[in-house]
Amino acid sequence: MQGADRRRGAGERGARELCCDRAGRERRGRRRADGGGRAPGAFGVRRHPRARGGHLAIGERVVSEFSGLRVLVLGGGPDAEREVSLRSAAGVASALREAGCGVVEATIGRVTADELRALEGDVVFPVLHGSFGEGGGLQDLLEADGRAYVGCGARAARLAMDKLATKAAAWRAGVPTADAALVNPHDEVCALDLPVVVKPVHEGSSVGLRIVRTAAAYAAAVEAVREHGRPNMVEAFVRGRELTVGVVDLEGHGLAALPIVEIAPASGVYDYQAKYERNDTRYTANPDLPSGARETVQARALTVARAIGVRHLARVDFLLDEHGEAWLLELNTMPGFTATSLLPMAGRAAGIEMPTLCARLAARAMVDGGVAPEAIGGGV
Q1: Count: domains in the chain
Q2: C-alpha dist (Å) from residue 164 to 160, 223, 367
Q3: Is 336 annotated as catalytic?
């Protein structure tokens, strides 16, 4: 813990700089209103009135230059999270249409380069979860074809999909994260003190997550690892409040933290069922937290996202323990966009409705991908 304390000192200095200096942030906000610069990491909310015709006014650039924007929304994929991806993709497509964008929807599996090239759109919004769609495989294809797309580049996506690599990057950046190791499928003796968390290294949506409290339960978990053949990790169990922070870059000024959302599953474990199959999980935006915790958690979310190389959006999950320490759980480079998903919830808490959020992400990807406004609508 001594090393963690030293690292925490650096993180807390960053938190004060980014989040805690409210008077300074107000001064910077006044300068921005006069045309000045923008404070890094401080999310400036602009409320967008509805324009004529029922479409959202989502900023001058999107309304004028990108009014003919056609977004290719990809959903599905070959991984265990396919059904969640399809629901998220439907949510994104609906939001983009409400924002006035043209939408092309495509359900894919393990798509080939030629199949992807045949799909039209000015910018790609790949709403896929799992190893292929979120872990670098799809991103490799998009980059090889020169397509502008929402989300992380292939290298960052690959790093974030590996939970152990993400934890290592966070630790190097000074963000505490619980002890963890690969599960040895040939050793039924746990490398860490019980209780522990066992989960796949390369899956999201809490697929395969289990809390293990006894030696017999750990042996059963190891047997399951042997049967499925997927790398799993064992992580020290941290008891605390589960918090998540969305980070976004909507205007090209760098990543900024959205309001914190607290997750309180009735079962006590935020697993796949609690996320997608039950309706008794309680979500609280801007929860009451101990003094300084909000700023620390938001600053650490930005620190981890930058260490990974996040582009456009991500969701960073933490546990806040009884001593006020915030422990990184994991980072998701393509968060969910379903009715109960956390990034849209955080956006609403910041005054950004989902149509605005999705359209601005698509527009940001167009700019970052070097697509000129005059090329919009001309196919690919």
Answers
A1: 2
A2: 9, 21, 32
A3: yes
Catalytic residue among 88, 131, 205, 206: 205
Same-domain check for residues 220 and 246: no
Q: Is residue 45 part of a domain?
A: no
Q: Which of 236, 256, 274 finishes a domain?
A: 236
CB 50: neighbour CB atoms within 10 A? Answer: 10
Active-site residue, 332 included: yes
* Residue 105 annotated among the catalytic residues of the structure: no
Range of the domain at 244: 52-164+239-375
Residue 118: C-alpha distances to residues 72, 133, 147, 320 (Å)? 11, 18, 12, 46
Q: Is 81 a catalytic residue?
A: yes
Evaluate whether 204 touches 341 at the Cβ level (below 8 Å): no
Q: Is residue 31 part of a domain?
A: no
Q: Record the pTM.
A: 0.80
The single residue of 332, 341, 347, 360 carrying the catalytic annotation is: 332
67 is known as an active-site residue: no
* Residue 317 annotated to the active site: yes
pLDDT in tens, the chain (380 residues): 333 333 344 444 343 223 333 333 333 333 333 333 333 343 433 333 333 223 333 344 444 445 678 999 999 998 888 998 999 999 999 999 999 999 999 999 999 999 999 999 999 999 999 889 999 999 999 999 999 999 999 999 999 999 999 999 999 999 999 999 999 988 889 999 999 999 988 875 456 788 999 999 999 999 988 888 889 999 999 999 999 999 999 988 999 999 999 998 876 655 455 555 556 689 999 999 999 999 999 999 999 999 999 999 999 999 999 999 999 999 999 999 987 899 999 999 999 999 999 999 999 999 999 876 655 654 33
Q: Which of 315, 325, 341, 364 is catalytic?
A: 315
The question of whether 276 is a catalytic residue gets the answer yes
Residue 126 lies in a domain: yes
Dist CA 280 CA 277 (whole Å): 9
- Annotated active-site residue 65? The verdict is no
Catalytic residue among 75, 330, 347, 360: 330
Catalytic residue among 79, 81, 134, 295: 81
